[in-house]
Amino acid sequence: MKNKIRDLREQKGMTQEELAEFIGVSRQTINAIEKQKFDPSLPTAFKMAKLFGLPIESIFQFEEK
Amino acid sequence: MKLERTKRIRKLAVWTWTWVATMAIATLGPEFIWDNHSFLTPFAIIVNLANGILMILANRDLFNHFDELERKIHLEAMGITLGLTVVVGLTFSLLDQKDLIPFDAEIGYLVMFTGICYLTAVLINTRRFK
Question: Where do transmembrane segments lie in this chain (chain A) (predicted)?
Answer without folding.
Answer: none
